[in-house]
Amino acid sequence: MQKTKIAPSLLAADFGNLQRDVELVNNSDADWHHIDVMDGVFVPNISYGMPVVKAIQKHATKPLDVHLMIVDPDRYIKEFANLGATYLTVHYEACTHLHRTLQAIKVAGMKAGVALNPHTPVQLLENIIQDIDLVCVMSVNPGFGGQSFIANTFDKVRALKALITARGSKALIEIDGGVSTANAKELVAAGADVLVAGSFVFKSTDPIATIKSLKA
Length: 216
Hints:
With 216 residues, this protein is of the alpha/beta class. It contains 8 helices and 8 strands; from the N terminus they run βαβαβαβαββαβαβαα. It has helices spanning 18-26, 50-59, 77-82, 98-107, 153-167, 184-190, 199-202, 207-215; strands at residues 5-8, 33-38, 64-69, 85-91, 111-116, 134-138, 172-176, 194-197. The protein starts with a strand and ends with a helix. Belongs to the ribulose-phosphate 3-epimerase family. Catalyzes the reversible epimerization of D-ribulose 5-phosphate to D-xylulose 5-phosphate.
């Protein structure tokens, strides 16, 4: 039984002290750095672009888990590979030719992830689940940190786990949005492999201890 991976979302970090917060994650029990790239088109918010990801990569000693909340992600696949992303996740809703996009991510040397918005059913992945390395289930509406967890996520994770098992896929299930110690245990029981936590980690009084408690 593999241990649950924790991926603190740097969207909630202090951008004035980004190196400090990246090093905090390096020195914690966390497994990945979760990086949300938003374009102001696919989602209402704009987060950060390539120069900031490059700055994060310079200090990060753990894998970069890059989540693209952007339209036409195909344009930037090679750039994120060059920036050292381990996982590159695109939104199902933003990809007209999802299979082609996933193949391009893999050809570029990264693991390929697909994110699903809260309203998108997991069944839409049944013909491609065997080509996916990571499914990111959005448990809030994408675009902003600090939102409330959507309770329907538990059923969605169970359905996704069943699909992955039935198809013999190796895809990891990642939960992004509103994750805390209040729902972490139930999410893992439902089938989650990776928990993304932003505000819950970085707004806590002791982020290192908070990451440790999530990992437990």
